[in-house]
Description:
Elements: E1 9-11, E2 22-26, H1 37-48, E3 53-58, H2 68-87, E4 91-95, H3 99-107, E5 110-116, H4 121-133, E6 138-141, H5 149-152, H6 160-174, H7 200-206, H8 223-236, H9 238-244, H10 257-261, H11 267-275, H12 282-302, H13 314-322, H14 334-338, H15 345-357, H16 362-375, H17 379-393, H18 400-409, H19 431-437, H20 440-448
Parallel strand pairs: 2-3, 2-5, 3-4, 5-6
Antiparallel strand pairs: 1-6
Helix pairs in contact: 3-4, 6-12, 9-12, 11-12, 12-18, 15-20, 16-17, 16-18, 17-18
This protein binds a DNA duplex through residues 158-162, 245-246, 287, 292, 313, 315, 362-363, 366, 408, 413-420, 425, 427-430, 432-433, 437.
Amino acid sequence: MDEIQGERIRALNSRGLQRGEYVLYWMQSSVRTEYNHALEYSVERANALDLPLLVFFGVTDKYPNANLRHYRFLLEGLEEAKGSLEDRGIRMIVQHVSPEMGAIALSGGSAMTVVDVGYTRELKAWRRKVAERIGCPLIGVESNVVVPVEAASIKEEYSAATIRPKIAKKLPLYLVPLRERELQNQSVDFDARASDFSNLGEVLGKLEIDRSVGRAEMFQGGTSSAMKRLDEFIDGRLDDYAEFKNDPTKDVVSNLSPYLHFGHISPLHVALEVDGVDSPGKESFLEELIVRRELAINFVNYNKDYDSFECLPEWCRKTLGEHASDPREYTYSLAEFERAETHDPYWNAAQAEMVMTGKMHGYMRMYWGKKILEWSRGPEEAYRIAVRLNDKYELDGRDPNGYAGVAWCFGKHDRPWKERPVFGKIRYMNDRGLRRKFDADLYVKKVGDL
DNA sequence: ATCGGCTCGCGCAA
DNA sequence: TGCGCGAAGCCGAT
């Protein structure tokens, strides 16, 4: 049985195979050697053509909203991926170049080019450009979802309830292990002007990036860190996950989202590991990892306005519009929010947690977004502020999960509730809810101790 | 502490 | 066409 399901693979142009020196794998979204369908597919094709494989990653310093925090994490993962590819006899080059331009240049020597698939507009635009410009086939492979996006649904889904049965139906087909293929021809003879990755600090120093957001000390990028976290999560915290996942004073969440965002770990690999144990938290975690995460990806894939107010369903925009001029008890600017200068110690703690650690607890993300809606001058401005702060400070920012998370705070994937000022029919949350569910003051103290 | 109402639209049953 | 039901809730009534 071929474990790389056909629905994961798509030709992105209609060029024929070329007489090339190698097969090129343009790595972009799946920076790992384990459980990487694009890599294994590339190895299969290289073996079938009796060609060596060349893996390429382009590091651009122009990626929107990315800063030192994100680049450091990215590069830590890249360094590890490069090493583990070499252990498999696969040559990887990393260049300081705009990824699509680097892929176009290297495709000049390739028989065919393979790329792993991401869903945000920057990644789609790069793929489109490469597909048009190169003379050989460009093949996209989906490895960062359990169920390929269009296999799950061919349209934007309305809610978790509508996508859940569709994913459940397809799951047996895709929740299966991926075998590692051995590359036959390891004689790649390519004199690349590749960046030297022996010194990560030096590479970071060369990039012209925003350095105002510092390293997230708690998170070290790379597959081995991700796997270590996964093991610790399954052994120590999964049992309590269902009961305490919404309690930010407890340490029960997996903290894998930065690794999933940068492709340092495969969601399929995580799902299989968790599925293989007997734990009361299993079902709840798989719901988050697969149904919620892939609902978010469905949203970004099918809704071109995924990072702005315009993405919201009609009833949300209408009700928020009707309350746009309601008096606000408090209003803050982007800068005030950013500096955590609101009157609310819980909100400030959540913001501080994100700025300091690079990852806000999932439950607080809801409260955080709801309050930005409540305390901004209007819903469109609130939307921009929430997306901006999320993208800038979260290690898992600039990701479908983040965009869907912000959208949910404004009513997306949710239902209407009793109408009230400012929110209209959008679900409301307040600080009493936090105190009802957990020791909110302990959370403030915990963040203060960081 | 617990319960019902709030309110829209999807999708299935009929 | 009717009807059940839905990511994380709130609020007032009992």
